[in-house]
Amino acid sequence: MSGNEIRKRYLEFMVSRGHAVIPSASLLPENDPTTLFTGSGMQPLIPYLMGEEHPMGARLTNSQKCFRSGD
């Protein structure tokens, strides 16, 4: 099974459980001066994890592009 097929099946599974699919954020964070790249799937969601309401609701899913580097 390819990576694209795994991603597609994962998102379909989550949608079938009532989650809304949100698009992947940019690899270059727009409003985070503390980092050069998006380094985890949670990073673009931090405002919503801290209590801000997301316009698509509380049950969200995505497949976030991220850049991992060894420090």
Automatic annotation (TrEMBL):
Please, which domain of life does this record's source organism belong to?
Bacteria
Boundaries of each Alanyl-tRNA synthetase class IIc N-terminal domain copy? 5-70
Task: Provide the Gene Ontology terms for cellular component.
Answer: cytosol
GO BP term, pick one: alanyl-tRNA aminoacylation
Q: Which Pfam family, any one, appears in the UniProt record?
A: tRNA-synt_2c
Which residue spans adopt a coiled-coil conformation according to this UniProt entry? none
The UniProt GO MF terms for this protein read: alanine-tRNA ligase activity; aminoacyl-tRNA deacylase activity; ATP binding
Record's InterPro entries? Answer: aa-tRNA-synth_II/BPL/LPL, Ala-tRNA-synth_IIc_N, Ala-tRNA_ligase
Q: Report what the protein is called.
A: Alanyl-tRNA synthetase class IIc N-terminal domain-containing protein
Q: From which source organism is this entry?
A: Candidatus Kaiserbacteria bacterium CG_4_8_14_3_um_filter_38_9
